[in-house]
Structure prediction request, 159 residues.
Amino acid sequence: MPALDWITHVPAPVDAVARFHAAPRVIRRLTPFVVPMTMRRMDPLGEGSISEFTLWFGPIPVRWTALHVDVDPQAGFTDIQTAGPFPLWKHAHRFQPTPDGGTHIVEHVDYRHGTGWTGQLTRLLFSRPMLLLLFSYRSAVMRWSLGWFRRAEFQARML
Prediction:
């Protein structure tokens, strides 16, 4: 079964990282702007919460429903695709404090492509190189979005 592991270091404490991930519509921010997204349902992040959205790859809609489990506001959460293009998509997000006052966001995705035309579609749209590009984009957005903690800390010292 294919898997992807990714670690992003952000210069912000765990509680800020947790608030960022719990923000409404954060998934929109973490999705590359070249992939239009229609939000259908976005429950507040909590055990058993649901997110439903459609990703548009040109004229092709890819509907996705995710269930959030193992939610611990200070440690992370897991989203499991319950409806969508993959027979299996399980994405764990773990938040680990670092000695510099920042946080490692440790992500692990287990996934399996299906058979038939949907399997061919996921192999094309969610190939390993495409997933690496997606996670690179997400890392940049998280580092930029959460980097204001260090900038604010620096400005406070300058006063």
Q: What stands out?
A: The mean pLDDT is 93. The chain has one domain: 3-151. The CA atoms of residues 12 and 25 lie 20 Å apart. The longest strand covers residues 60-72.
